[in-house]
Design a protein that fits this description.
The chain has 338 residues and is of the alpha/beta class. It is built from 10 helices and 12 strands. Helix 5 crosses helix 9, helix 8 packs across helix 9 and helix 9 runs antiparallel to helix 10. The radius of gyration is 20 Å and the shape is globular.
């Protein structure tokens, strides 16, 4: 059962809108505490802000550390701890809190998803909430993200597709340029405005829209769940905005063990491939998912001789030709043997 402090009640802010921050922790208690403090240290334009921290049955003593810090720092009703007995994964853990918030008479207007290895660098919540307050047709606003070094990283994206999978896997200049308008990542300096989806490490979402579209799909354990959610939100007629003026620092990979600079040879976990399959199946049907799978396989096969000719390492993940068909097939074809 979660350890829950009483809900924070107070007079509405001058802006009227209120927010709930959700942080899902797994083995990163120190970073989570820093993330919480970065929220508590801001004024958020006077908005009422509540923080919910879900500990996903961390294998160490994270739950005890979080509870002890909660008491020692006097967080009180400002921070609610959900100390879970099982690891729900990212989306399902967020869903626990979202469902509880939706059931409340004083449900917040927005939820802000913040990675445990991320922290606010400015009044990001105020900036994002102001933007959604002023843009009724938008349901999501994502922050600009930088590494601890200060280097800006991509936080705005196009939706994945078969062509994008082929071009990215091939990793060959002429093909990359040919399919440039299909590539998933947008440049790190992409300007403010509507995009397909934004990084789930720091994103504000209208709770009222989640009531209509549903929250995270529980079929996903980790990875691609925020992409699929924003796909549904976009297809329900709402905009997703990238707002780089809202700044968040992200110690990329500390929470998941996967970093952008790990290089393509890192071996993804099985659930990464399964989530990839779930995403494509749910957003483009079995035919579209199979086309994306064939695009990735064809691109990876073409990359192998091209990489050798250029004296480069292969662009595919380690174990790709064994792992991808085996694990993605479980999502694309239910009943596929383990």
């Amino acid at each position: 059962m979660p350890f829950k402090t009483p809900a924070r009640h107070g007079a509405p802010s001058a802006h009227g809108s209120s927010l709930a921050v959700i942080i899902v922790n797994y083995g990163t208690a120190d970073l989570t505490i820093a993330a919480i403090q970065s929220v508590l240290d801001r004024h958020h334009g006077g908005r009422r802000v509540q923080i919910h921290v879900v500990d996903n049955a961390s294998p160490e003593d994270d739950a005890r550390l979080l509870a002890r810090h909660h008491a020692a720092q006097g967080w009180g009703a400002r921070v609610t701890l959900w100390l879970e007995p099982v690891n729900h994964g990212f989306g399902r853990a967020n869903n626990l809190v979202i469902a509880a918030l939706q059931a409340r008479a004083d449900a917040p207007d927005y939820i802000f998803l913040l990675n445990p290895d991320a922290a606010l660098e400015n009044e990001a919540l105020e900036i994002l909430a102001d933007r959604l307050d002023a843009t009724p047709g938008a349901a999501v606003a994502g922050a600009g993200i930088a590494l601890p070094s200060g280097r800006q990283v991509t936080a705005a994206f196009r939706f994945p597709s078969a062509r994008a999978a082929f071009a990215q896997a091939t990793n060959f200049g002429p093909i990359t340029r040919l399919f440039g308008a299909r590539l998933v990542p947008l440049p790190p300096d992409h300007p403010d405005g509507p995009v397909d989806w934004v990084a789930g490490a720091a994103v504000l979402i209208r709770l009222s829209v989640l009531r209509r579209t549903g929250a995270f799909d529980p079929d996903f354990f980790l990875y691609f769940e925020e992409v699929e959610l924003m796909f549904r939100i976009r297809h329900a007629g709402h905009q997703v905005l990238y707002v780089p003026a809202a700044r968040v620092r992200h110690a990329e990979g500390a929470a998941t063990g996967v970093k952008e600079d790990d290089g393509p040879r890192k071996r993804p976990p099985a659930y990464w491939y399964e989530s990839w399959g779930h995403y494509h199946l749910k957003t483009s049907g079995r035919g579209g998912a199979l086309r994306a799978a064939l695009g990735w396989l064809a691109g990876a096969a073409l990359n192998a001789p091209l990489a050798r000719l250029r004296g480069q390492a292969p662009g595919r993940p380690k174990g790709f030709f064994r792992d991808f068909p085996r694990h993605a097939a479980r999502a694309l074809m239910p009943g596929w043997p383990q």
